[in-house]
Design goal:
Blueprint lengths: L3 H21 L17 H21 L10 H20 L12 H24 L7 H26 L21 H27 L7
């Protein structure tokens, strides 16, 4: 019988597999064999957070009073939405460069899991079994911290330590289209992402709490 416990075991097993292959080993469909490994990509930051939450949810099965991870849930929901929107929109617009050749059905399924499937599990956990959007003073800094940390990671670590890929302006950013933008263009892009994040925060809260609640 597929119950809450089995759902959480499955969710944890999948995130554990991708945590090992994408982050520990450093494999990724875009070839992460340079400085930063799999953590070059926001997708894997998202997977890491989903892995932590899945592990905490499994611990909640053993101890129902273990709910201290709830403050992570709103920021994780927003990050999942952003990864989904950014990946598929940018991919549709060709911002990731030419598609890698030799993909098998396994590669396609992994791609769909990383950019859609893991979010389904996270949203199901929040909507069915956990509680989110209960204390914005603890919850909102999670999203803000991830947003700022990843930009710092891009600008002051990855770009300075990698020579590929290259674009018309710079080299080293893991996403090819960023190498075609100057610092003003990147600031505009980051601003657009932040705006999407704020809209996603409001949307996720309305989904969880209902339309009658405040924006925060």
């Amino acid at each position: 019988m597929f119950n809450k416990r089995n759902f959480r075991i499955l969710a944890f097993g999948l995130t554990l597999y991708f945590f090992i292959t994408n982050i520990v080993i450093g494999n990724y469909v875009l070839n992460a064999g340079t400085w930063g490994g799999g953590l070059k990509f926001l997708t894997n930051w998202n997977l890491l957070l989903n892995f932590i939450i899945a592990g905490c949810a499994l611990q909640n099965e053993r101890d129902s009073k273990f709910t201290s991870y709830y403050f992570l849930l709103p920021g994780s929901m927003v990050l999942n939405v952003l990864v989904f929107l950014l990946y598929w929109i940018i991919k549709l617009l060709g911002g990731f460069g030419s598609a890698p050749g030799g993909w098998t059905m396994i590669h396609v399924l992994k791609d769909y899991y990383m950019h859609f499937g893991t979010s389904v599990f996270l949203f199901a956990e929040v909507m069915l079994f956990s509680k989110a959007f209960t204390n914005w003073k603890k919850e909102l800094p999670v999203f803000g911290g991830i947003f700022i940390a990843y930009i710092i990671w891009l600008e002051f670590f990855l770009q300075l330590r990698n020579n590929t890929p290259c674009g018309t302006v710079s080299c080293g950013f893991p996403y090819p289209f960023l190498n075609d933008l100057d610092y003003v263009g990147r600031l505009i892009f980051y601003g657009i992402v932040l705006a999407l994040g704020i809209v996603s925060w409001v949307g996720c809260k309305k989904l969880v709490k209902g339309p009658g609640h405040s924006l925060l």
